[in-house]
Amino acid sequence: MTEKTPDLLRVIIAGALVLLVVHTLGRFIYTPLLPWLVEDGLLTLKQGADVASWNYLGYLIGALLAMRWHRVEQIHKVLPWALAINVLCTLLQTQAESAESLSALRLINGITNGIVFVQAPSLILEWLARHGRATASGLVYLGVGVGLLVSSALVAVPSDWLHGAARWWPAFILSVPLAWWGWRQLAVLDIPAPVVVPKANGEVPSSRLLDRASTPLFLSYAGAGLGYILPLTFLPMLASLELEPGSFLVDGSWLVVALATLPAPWIWNKVGARIGDALALRINYILQLLGVLAVLLLPAAWGVVLCALLVGGTFLGTVLLTQRLARTLHPHQGPRLSAALVALYGFTQLTGPWLTGQWLAASGTLHGAFWLGAGALLWGLVWALLTPEKS
């Protein structure tokens, strides 16, 4: 290998660290932080749901921007700025003492997270496909699994000596070196523009994102976005409301999610490569649906544990299998298709916390709001059954 051709392991690690920074230290750490921010008096539960909604709105905007900036040369220009601004937002959140200021910062955090979450894996997937290693692409999402575990520790360990907005400091301190090193590795990836190869009958592949093959996949992914976001945003809060004070799961439910998520990208990457991404995706939806139903139908402690295990162990698999299956259906427009899927995912994620906020404002319970997630995952499963392996 020459200096200009990074080895596969280094590229995978770099992508994983970039996703760890924006998607866990920047985004998902808010989930285990929320009960503490409520306890500290910085937010109410209703404000916490609203703040989450602003972040998801930003994620949607970021994915739409990434859809506009989908060419490799554009990714090389935009990605480092999005990564840097994301880290800066985490710094500024250490000074955010009101729901309004935190909402504004979470909006910007979401925009930059959406851009990076689309562009970094897309860049790596195109590079891997060029070198005949596209089946390794799912390993990039190991960064999210590791990041959930790290974020749990960054919240739990200093919980007794940090208060309010200062609870964001550990995330910022760790983000700086990881973001810097990760981008340095990705910056040297040189990928030519994709070549549009005519089909066997001489027909040039369509540039449409939605056709008979891809439309069921888009509809399925919409259900995934809405279905997973409720437990991953509100499960620790639900545990604190339904379990006895002092229960391990009040603080530990997010740790269980993190531990379940840690091996998930490797497992689903392997399962998809062995039995096909389409079949693996259907199995993934079934397990994820059972996880949400567990918290609805079983005693509180058992429900929280099974929800954490099954949703934590599947949601990244949904992402990587859908992204890879989409590229199989339309290999000539990989980054653009990835951005469109993430934009749809972002839109449906946005509706989850917003609907939860409205439900709570109308005197509904957080437990009741989880039924929405179960219905969304059932929708996703039905459309996954109708998605072909190849067009």
Form type: globular
Query: What is the top-level CATH class?
Result: Mainly Alpha
CATH homologous superfamily - what is it? MFS general substrate transporter like domains
Would you give the CATH topology?
A: Growth Hormone, Chain: A
Counted by DSSP, the helix tally is 15
> H/E order of the elements?
HHHHHHHHHHHHHHH
Entry summary:
It is built from 15 helices and no strands. The chain is mainly alpha-helical and 391 residues long.
Defining traits:
391 residues; mainly alpha; Growth Hormone, Chain: A; 75% helix; globular
Question: Would you give an account of this structure?
Answer:
Helix 8 packs antiparallel against helix 15 and helix 10 crosses helix 11. The protein is built from 15 helices and no strands. The chain is mainly α. It is globular.
